[in-house]
Amino acid sequence: KIQQPEIYNEIRDLSRFYQEVEEEIKRTRMHLHNALQLSFPELELFFSSRITPYALTLIGLFPHPEFVLQTSQTKIKNLLIKSTTKRISENRAKQKAGQIMDYAKESYPAVSSTSVQTQKVQYYARQLLHLLEEKENISGQLIEKSKKLSEFELLISLPGIGDISAALFIGEFGDISRFSNHKKVNAFIGIDIRRYQSGKYTGQDHINKRGNPKGRKILYLIVRNMIRQQKAAPNHIVDYYYNLKKQPIPKKDKVATVACMNKLLK
After folding, report:
1. Contact 108, 41 (CB under 8 A)
2. Alpha-carbon dihedral of residues 236, 242, 244, 247, nearest 10 degrees?
3. What's the Cα-to-Cα distance from 187 to each of 24, 25, 166, 182, rounded to whole Å?
4. Closest Cα partner for 51 from 131, 160, 165?
5. Contact between residue 42 and residue 107 where contact means Cβ atoms under 8 Å apart
6. Which residues contact 71 (CB under 8 A, 6 or more apart)?
7. How far apart are the C-alpha atoms of 204 and 186, rounded to whole Å?
8. Rounded CA separation 168/177 (Å)
9. How many CA atoms lie within 13 A of 138 on its CB side?
10. Does residue 101 contact residue 73 with C-beta atoms inside 8 Å?
């Protein structure tokens, strides 16, 4: 077994920590969603695109419409400016305060403002805020360490691969130069083909799914990201994906994606 320089082990540990926090964010978000559905469902409209610190701060302060209706828009605006860790402009705070006031007037909650569900909303909003800060902190460390390696520049030069994707890739694949060819990398993450044959019968090809499932997941997400960003950053991996989907017998979406993962490693 080839020993890798210690920096790869450090990046791997940070990458695993980052992924654990991401999983925790998903779980906490689900708990928050379930509690909000009962206490103040309209607040989910704050999450139209992504979870922001302002939205979570407001949800923590006003987990039930009654909390909003007992105060004024100006007080909500001032509380938001004071309580948000990231700087928020006066106008933005005023806009958010107006939004929450409108939501409160339209809301018909299923529970009272003193219910356990309302307490849960406050608890999970605080937890989520803390987890997002932690994720940002780990992400910064992960990218900083990965930038010290020459392959980081190579990875981010590929369309559709950003700083965090490149760092997570290095974290899971380690020093890729220790593999003598791409087939060994395929086997390492379990996307080499497993073929079942018995007499004249040949089963359908499947990927092995042994090896490193975290590396497989990151590579899968990188390829999906390339496909999503194709207009902004076209590349030959995405072209290959569409060629496979257009063949006389079109490949299924997942099969085409795995083929692209293989091509990217090659």
Report:
1. no
2. -130
3. 29, 31, 20, 9
4. 131
5. yes
6. none
7. 19
8. 17
9. 21
10. yes
Q: Tell me if 194 sits within 8 A of 205, measured CB to CB.
A: yes
How confident is the model at residue 192, as a pLDDT?
62
CB 219 within 8 A of CB 161: no
Q: What is the pTM of this model?
A: 0.84
Q: If you average pLDDT over every residue of the chain, what do you get?
A: 88
- Tokens 């419409």 correspond to 65
Long-range contacts of 64-69 (CB under 8 A, 24+ apart): 64/39, 64/40, 64/109, 64/111, 64/112, 64/113, 64/118, 64/121, 65/40, 65/103, 65/104, 65/105, 65/107, 65/109, 65/113, 66/112, 66/113, 67/113, 68/100, 68/101, 68/103, 68/104, 69/104, 69/105
> Are the C-beta atoms of residues 131 and 141 closer than 8 Å to each other?
no
Alpha carbon of residue 176 to chain centroid: 24
Angle between helical axes of 73-83 and 53-61 (0-180°, round to 10): 120
Q: What are phi and psi of 197, to 5 degrees?
A: -130, 140
Distance of CA 207 to the CA centre of its chain: 24
Q: Is the pLDDT of residue 115 over 90?
A: yes
Sheet strands (E) in 92-246: 193-194, 197-198, 201-202, 206-207
pLDDT of residue 49: 67
Count, residues in the chain: 266
Structure tokens at 106: 């339209």
